[in-house]
Specification:
It is a single chain. The protein is mostly helical and 214 residues long. The chain has one domain. It has 8 helices and no strands. The longest helix has 27 residues. The chain starts with a helix and ends with a helix.
Length: 214
């Protein structure tokens, strides 16, 4: 995906801001959150960082396409294992949208990581692990029709999920107020439940955009 430099920079800044906010929140709430929610938030941080790198020509090859496919395939597989394990035990899967934290629903996280795999995989036919002469260099050049169809389907899902997340925020004023935990105004803002949901929505919408315009 080749975008004008100012637009690519703006998107990268947005992804980095989402990653930074979630990272700070994850650290501040490290003693108060459940493991799956923390893992979900950390997963969103990794995805946001990867997208920020992919969209900028200067960093497009920091993570080669094959390595990106492998990384997110492994992460996605771990959520698939959790999904199967929870199903086998008859355990609740959690909210697919999220309440006051990033959604720890394994199906959502499996699909999100599948979207990252698709973004990296579509680069490989146009230049393999050495592609990177521009942001998302070579995207769409000879990518298989099936892969493109999967990418569009995942993008639609991510857009619907991001929209639903925004709707939850709009309806639930209790999620928008600043959180507690000390640390002054910045700490309260970072701890606000809306931060996690907002980062999740930004990450999902960003993935959808990158899948659709490759």
């Amino acid at each position: 995906m080749t975008l004008p430099a100012p637009l690519a920079g703006a998107f990268a800044a947005l992804f980095l801001a989402a990653a930074l906010l979630c990272t700070v929140s994850l650290w501040r709430r490290r003693a108060r959150h459940e493991g799956p929610a923390a893992a979900a938030e950390a997963n969103h941080v990794v995805m946001a960082l990867a997208m920020a790198a992919m969209i900028l020509p200067a960093t497009a090859t920091v993570l080669p396409p094959l390595a990106g496919v492998a990384l997110f395939a492994v992460i996605g597989a771990s959520w698939a294992v959790r999904l199967v394990a929870l199903r086998a035990r008859g355990r609740a899967l959690g909210s697919p949208i999220g309440g006051d934290r990033c959604a720890a629903h394994p199906t959502h996280l499996l699909l999100s990581n599948a979207a990252m795999v698709a973004m990296y995989a579509v680069v490989i036919p146009a230049g393999g692990a050495t592609a990177g002469h521009g942001a998302h260099a070579g995207h769409g050049a000879g990518s298989p029709l099936a892969l493109s169809a999967v990418g569009v389907a995942l993008a639609v899902y991510l857009l619907v999920h991001a929209g639903a997340t925004v709707a939850v925020l709009a309806r639930s004023t209790s999620l928008v107020v600043a959180g507690g935990g000390g640390g002054g105004v910045v700490g309260r803002v970072v701890d606000a439940p809306a931060v996690q949901l907002g980062c999740q929505a930004v990450t999902g919408a960003g993935m959808a955009l990158m899948l659709l315009v490759h």
